[in-house]
Structures are given as structure tokens and as C-alpha cells.
Amino acid sequence: MLKIQYDLFLNSFSTDSDLRSATVADLRAVRARDPACVSYSHCLLNYKGFLACQAHRVAHKLWIESRRPLALALHSRIADVFAVDIHPAAKIGKGILFDHATGVVVGETAVIGNNVSILHHVTLGGTGKSGGDRHPKISDGVLIGAGATILGNIKIGEGAKIGAGSVVLIDVPARTTAVGNPARLVGGKEKPSRHVDVPAESMDHTSFISEWSDYII
């Protein structure tokens, strides 16, 4: 079985330049955004979020090639080894950081754009048992905090920020911050506060707090 997996990965990466370029972009993203990553080799050999993402890329390639039993078998193995559950049909862009990654769940029809950062225990799920296009669409540059749950065929706009532990059930506009359960826009629905940075790159999880609450410990 190990030999089969080795040959599968070797063939996939050696014949698909898009796969290789996505891996390089992911590697650079992890090194740039995670201060705990001490080197590229550290990420390449030991970062399970990075490794799970690359394994998913192979599973997705198998899926779109209609080799679906093998794609699902690889998906199951990824979940067992890395505690990351990404359906092989899910589409993931380049420059992705799965920080810590434990407990991440990404549904079948979910789409993740380029340059996105996602922390542990994030769910991109459906809202029931209906089929069809039923999972979130995450635009470029989005940051999703730890434990956030985003459900349904909704859009998280470009450069948006989802606070840790939030439950998001409706669209989030570009360059805004959604926080809470149920999630609300910082600054209000009518005139939400907008940021100019790219949250996925800045990894800024807390700058919204002064606008969100006067609670002080």
C-alpha cells in the first residue's frame, strides 16, 4: 500500500505543473505567515496542515479524473493521519495556510480561493441533507479564525475576516469582519467597518475588538 501511495504522489507531482506551483505557493505562505515555522524544510517535512493540503490536491486531481474510489480512499487516509477532513471534490486555490489544521472540515462543494488562511477546528459545511451546491465559497485573501463555523452556499467576500468561534450563515461583504454567534459585522450591517490590509497575510485576529466591545479584563 505504501508503494502504491508513493507512486501515486510521485506521478501526480511529476506530471502536473499546476500541482507543483500550488505546493510552492503554499510553502511560501506558511513560511511567511506562521512565526513558528523556522524553515521551508521544517514546513515541508513536519507541518501537517501543509501536508494535508498537498495530499488533498492529489485526491482532488484523482476526483476530477473520475478515479473517485481512489480519491475517496486517499481522503479517508488523510483524515486518519492528519485529523483534517477535506472532501476530494472541494476546490482549493494557491497560497493556502492551514494553521495547526486539527479538526478542519471542508465539504464537497466548498471553494477556497487563493491566499487564504484557515485555523484549526474550522468547518465549511452544509446546512442539512439536501444535495447540490451547498457549501461556502471563500474568496481570495480571507482569514478564518479558530473554531469558526461557516454553513451553506454563502460567499465570504475578498479580504474578509471571520473571528474565532463565529457562526456564519449569510454572505459576508469584502473587506469586513464578522464576529459572534450568530455572526455580526463589526461596525453594523448598514455601514460596516472596512479594512485595507489582506487579513490572510497580516494574520491580524484582534484589531477589531476596540470597535466591537467595550469589555475590558
Description:
The protein is α/β, with parallel strands linked by helices and 217 residues long. The chain has 2 domains: 85 residues, serine acetyltransferase, domain 1; 110 residues, UDP N-Acetylglucosamine Acyltransferase, domain 1 (3 Solenoid), CATH 2.160.10. A 6-stranded mixed β-sheet has the order 3-6-9-12-14-15. A hairpin with a 4-residue loop joins β14 and β15. One of its GO terms (cellular component) is cytoplasm. It comes from Papaver somniferum.
Kindly summarize this structure in a few lines.
Pathway: Amino-acid biosynthesis; L-cysteine biosynthesis; L-cysteine from L-serine: step 1/2. The protein has helices at residues 2-15, 17-33, 40-46, 48-64, 68-82, 199-202, 209-212; strands spanning 85-86, 91-92, 97-99, 105-106, 111-112, 117-119, 123-125, 137-138, 143-144, 149-151, 155-156, 161-162, 167-168, 177-179, 184-185. By secondary structure, the chain is of the alpha/beta class.
Topology (elements, then pairings):
Elements: H1 2-15, H2 17-33, H3 40-46, H4 48-64, H5 68-82, E1 85-86, E2 91-92, E3 97-99, E4 105-106, E5 111-112, E6 117-119, E7 123-125, E8 137-138, E9 143-144, E10 149-151, E11 155-156, E12 161-162, E13 167-168, E14 177-179, E15 184-185, H6 199-202, H7 209-212
Parallel strand pairs: 1-4, 2-5, 3-6, 4-7, 5-8, 6-9, 7-10, 8-11, 9-12, 10-13, 12-14
Antiparallel strand pairs: 14-15
